[in-house]
Structure formats: structure tokens, C-alpha cells
Design a protein that fits this description.
Layout: H1 6-21, H2 30-58, H3 80-84, H4 90-104, H5 126-137, H6 148-171
Helix pairs in contact: 1-5, 1-6, 2-5
Length: 175
């Protein structure tokens, strides 16, 4: 897959913003939805890398038997893939996965996913959630693909972009 550049990551994140434009989520709240998805995908991609590495090291042994190869605990059924394969009520599945991951990693991931209301179907239809998840499924976010610096920069970029949008919105139509 190769390395993901900051530019590529920014463009994926901006695509997410464009998808949310079609939802009832207020612009000022977009980052509260996009950033947790980014973290969630990152955690799962890193977990997959660690699993692949464990398989390389331990051969046929089941890497699940070696929890120490993982930086975070990823409870069964809580992987990005599981949510991606959920046919309906995606918000509920997403919410559940995030809560379970936080609960399984109380010291490291306490409340890392924030308090976005994923289950509110009036705000976030299954269609919009599917689009968001598909959009981010196309970008590798593991350590081999993205340095934490680039993630940090992308994060800053989003915060900055959304701050601008919020400012413009408050300023009203006179600009």
C-alpha cells in the first residue's frame, strides 16, 4: 500500500466533511464525528499490523494467544471490519465498538472517542455512515502507512478548517 502522504490524508478527511455536508450534523460538530472515526480506523489498522507481525514471528500459533503483541485490546466484534460489514443500524454498531474499545483499554483510551451521538438516525442516516466508513476504508492508517506526525498534522488541518467554517457561519452573510 505504501506510505500515505499528508495531502492524501487531508483529502480523505475533507471527503468526510463533504459527506457530512449532506447530513443534519451541524458544521461546528463535524470534527466530533470525523476525528473519532480516524482514531477508530487507526487503532484497527495498527492492530492488524501487529497481528500480521505476530503471525510472522510465531508461525502457525494463533496470535490471539499472544495479547502482548498488541498495544491495545480490541474486543471481538469491535473491529472496523465488523462495523463496515454491518448492514443496518450502523450508528449503533459504531457506538458499541467504540464504547467496548474504551472499556477494554481504560488506562490508554479512556473517552478517546468523545461523546458523538452515532445512534441518532435523524442526524446520521445509515447511508451517510456507510459513506463515511467507506471513505476512510480506502486509506491505510497503520504505523507502516502513516507516521503519528502526519496524523497530528491532519488533525490540526481539520481543526483549522472547521474553525474557519464556524467563524464564517457566525459572521453571517456580510463577508
Amino acid at each position: 500500500m505504501g506510505m500515505v502522504t499528508l495531502q492524501q490524508l487531508k483529502s480523505h478527511l475533507w471527503d468526510c466533511a463533504e459527506i457530512l455536508r449532506g447530513s443534519a450534523v451541524d458544521r461546528t460538530d463535524w470534527k466530533a464525528y470525523i476525528l473519532p472515526l480516524l482514531f477508530f480506523k487507526r487503532i484497527c489498522d495498527v492492530w492488524d499490523e501487529e497481528t500480521t507481525e505476530a503471525e510472522r514471528l510465531f508461525g502457525d500459533e494463533d496470535p490471539v494467544e499472544f495479547p502482548e503483541v498488541h498495544r491495545f485490546v480490541l474486543p471481538g466484534g469491535c473491529h472496523w471490519r465488523d462495523v463496515r460489514e454491518t448492514p443496518a443500524n450502523i450508528g449503533t454498531a459504531l457506538s458499541r465498538a467504540m464504547r467496548e474499545i474504551e472499556r477494554a483499554n481504560p488506562d490508554t483510551l479512556y473517552r478517546v472517542f468523545g461523546a458523538a451521538n452515532w445512534g441518532n438516525r435523524e442526524m446520521l442516516t445509515d447511508g451517510i455512515l456507510k459513506d463515511l466508513i467507506e471513505g476512510l476504508s480506502g486509506v491505510a492508517l497503520g504505523n507502516e502507512a502513516v507516521s503519528s506526525d502526519i496524523l497530528g498534522d491532519a488533525y490540526e488541518y481539520l481543526i483549522g478548517k472547521f474553525a474557519d467554517i464556524a467563524k464564517r457561519k457566525k459572521a453571517g452573510p456580510h463577508e
